[in-house]
Specification:
Number of helices: 22
Strand order of the largest sheet: 3-2-1-4-5-10-9
Number of domains: 3
Shape: elongated
Helix content: 40-55%
Number of strands: 20
Strand content: 15-25%
Length: about 675
């Protein structure tokens, strides 16, 4: 290969361009934005599993700056750089970063393909700021070579220079007296400058010219965006600048995502998400002889007192104090365990813990298995929802195969918590901290509504659900902030909590200013990123209150005593005794409901109670209580009437006996 030397060694001309005409910090963030979109396009096109197997080409990789960005995403990256010095720098850079699945090769594309015994096939191609330095003939030849080593599904990512003018603009740059000098020229002057040493030929491409040129090579532009706008300082304004023709005149660079014209159509878009899950199981405890919690206390104290354990405890203390003043509707003793590593192959569960809550006044126990889930497809969140209550689910706990219900039963036995019955009541709370690039909850597209419906209900067919049905299912929701939204459906809860987004950052910044001015500082509740799904914004505590009412209500409504079953004698007395006990439990539940005051509770509690049907259950209990009172009155009346009849017969019998005795005495 002929010795090639890049004309801007050390990128000095580029550095002077950035330093002289742009905000350097904005320049970097503007590029980060388009690269993030490129990576998201690859995720959307291939999905997370296939993405890990992709082979990517970084053509003209320079000093390897962008290789680690994509090596962290795909299976392997091959960087080609014809400048030997820059390629050596790239190789040293990759070694220093510990990148194992990438390499930098000193070759141009034609020479590299000729050196291979079999033509390689790349699934993705990145060409970052190289085309503007090629003659048009070289550019066409490179595209032809790229088509030889790619397939119909390959994604092409091109970044290059840009002009809003109707035709290309041509310049060349040199160092003159230590400064960057730019000379405008025509196509012929540009082509001549390409071959000159120490001269950087630069073509600024118009979008229309580039689109037609790529079309001639069999590539269709799927996405385009200009970036690096002169005079701008906030990269988040780049989309608005793209919509403004005057701002486009100030754009230096452009970004193209292309596919071959024969590319197969994509399937339904499957968003990427990250967040947390709380899998809740409630159990009726037999509290006739009181609840002994010493085993729980010992087990909690025996585990390693880690920073994560301290943080989880503090999260609950902070939330309960801020939201309820440490006076929960239903007092709970809580025990926290971080020594149970719950994992599942193929799903990035990064951390786990267990919360055991005992409600002495209600004789209930809640075991919550909490999972942190890294970035993965929405399908995996749907699957985790589906298998919450499955005994055959492929979880492991500290390396041992064990499903969530089995883990909960084992913990009940380990802690010596006696059950009134084997029946359990479940709920699931999923908190999403990221959903693609969303940073606020609305307005939602039809596809996003389907996606949220799938996570909320555990329906794997969510991509094919009618949009109207999906919107109806997620309609029971509430919010008071633009980055957070709880959604409830029966015992299924979804919290959109985009606390990694700029909308959240802006909110916290405002809260800090307000709290510092009026209260001398911001309460930790506002800034905590609770490890337990739903504890932020109080959703977990509202679900807890709703279930602590609903569980005993279901139990009572399922075992109404029948006073007509044994209408006489001892059996009647037993049924009356059971009915009085039943009546006492119903009154206790109604008293608990009154402490929550359903008609005046906050919006969040109302949302949860609506989903659980708590109001209807309470009304059913009230109606049942009235019927029971009537049944008891009738039973008491029946028993009294029978007693009166019995006494009457006894009196009559005594009278008859007295008459007979008197008659016998006369004889």
């Amino acid at each position: 290969m002929a010795e090639f030397k890049y004309s801007d060694g050390g990128d000095k001309l580029t550095a002077q361009l950035i330093g002289g005409e742009f905000d350097g910090e904005y320049w970097g963030r503007s590029e980060e934005r388009v690269l993030r979109r490129a990576k998201d396009f690859l995720r959307e096109r291939f999905g997370p599993e296939k993405l890990k197997t992709l082979s990517m080409l970084d053509l003209g990789c320079g000093m390897g700056r962008l290789i680690p960005e994509f090596a962290a995403l795909v299976g392997s990256v091959t960087g080609l750089e014809p400048d030997a010095e820059r390629c050596a720098q790239a190789q040293r850079f990759l070694r220093s970063r510990g990148v194992q699945n990438a390499r930098a090769v000193n070759a141009d594309l034609g020479a590299y393909l000729a050196s291979q015994s079999e033509t390689p096939r790349f699934d993705a191609v990145l060409c970052s700021h190289i085309f503007q330095h090629f003659s048009h003939a070289t550019f066409a030849g490179v595209l032809e070579d790229l088509r030889r080593c790619t397939g119909p599904e390959t994604v092409f990512i091109f970044t290059t220079t840009f002009t809003q003018a109707g035709e290309n603009l041509y310049t060349y740059e040199r160092f003159e007296n230590g400064a960057r000098a730019v000379t405008a020229t025509d196509l012929a002057g540009f082509e001549k400058a390409v071959a000159e040493p120490d001269t950087l030929a630069v073509c600024l491409f118009s979008k229309s010219w580039m689109t037609d040129f790529l079309k001639d090579a069999g590539l269709q532009v799927k996405e385009f965006a200009a970036y690096h706008f002169q005079g701008e300082h906030d990269a988040e304004k780049d989309p608005a600048c793209n919509a403004d023709p005057e701002k486009l005149l100030l754009a230096r660079d452009a970004f193209y995502i292309c596919l071959p014209f024969d590319a197969p159509p994509p399937g339904p878009h499957v968003p990427l998400a990250a967040g947390k899950l709380s899998m809740l199981q409630f159990y009726d405890l037999d509290g006739k002889e009181g609840l002994a919690l010493e085993a729980l206390e010992r087990a909690e104290a025996a585990q390693e007192q880690s920073e994560r354990l301290r943080r989880i405890r503090q999260d609950f203390a902070t939330a309960e104090d801020f939201l309820y003043g440490n006076k929960l509707h239903f007092p709970a003793r809580r025990f926290f365990f971080t020594d149970l590593a719950v994992r599942m192959e193929g799903i990035p569960i990064t951390a786990s813990h267990v919360v055991v809550s005992v409600y002495p006044e209600s004789n209930l126990c809640q075991i919550t298995v909490c999972l942190d889930v890294g970035e993965t497809t929405v399908h995996n969140f749907v699957y985790l929802h589906q298998i919450q209550c499955s005994d055959g689910a492929p979880f492991t706990v500290n390396g041992e195969p064990l499903a969530i219900p089995g883990l909960c039963r084992r913990l009940l036995q380990r802690f010596g918590l006696p059950l009134r019955s084997e029946k359990s009541y479940s709920a699931i709370l999923i908190e999403l901290n990221r959903l693609d690039e969303r940073d606020s909850y609305g307005p939602l597209t039809d596809g996003e509504c389907r996606c949220l419906y799938g996570i909320l209900t555990g329906d794997e067919g969510w991509p094919h659900v009618p949009a109207e049905l999906a919107r109806a299912r997620i309609d029971n929701s509430w919010t008071s902030r633009d980055f957070v939204k709880p959604i409830a459906f029966s015992s299924n809860y979804l919290l959109l909590n985009f606390n990694r987004a700029k909308t959240y950052e802006a909110y916290i910044k405002w809260q800090h200013g307000y709290a510092d001015h009026y209260f001398g500082g911001l309460n930790d509740y506002f800034t905590m990123d609770a490890a337990t799904a739903g504890l932020n914004h109080g959703v977990f505590l509202s679900v807890e209150a709703g279930k602590v009412i609903r569980c005993p209500a279901d139990r009572l409504l399922g075992r109404k005593p029948d006073l007509t079953k044994h209408p006489t004698g001892l059996f009647l007395r037993k049924e009356i005794h059971k009915s009085k006990s039943f009546r006492r439990e119903m009154i206790e539940i109604l008293n608990k409901v009154e402490t929550v005051n359903i008609t005046e509770i906050g919006e969040l509690d109302a949302l949860v109670f609506r989903a659980l049907g708590t109001n209807q259950k309470v009304e059913s209990i009230r109606s049942l209580l009235e019927l029971l009172e009537s049944d008891l009155d009738l039973a008491y009346q029946t028993r009294t009437n029978r007693m009166v009849n019995l006494l009457t017969f006894i009196s009559l019998g005594i009278g008859v006996v007295q008459v007979i005795l008197g008659w016998l005495a006369l004889k």
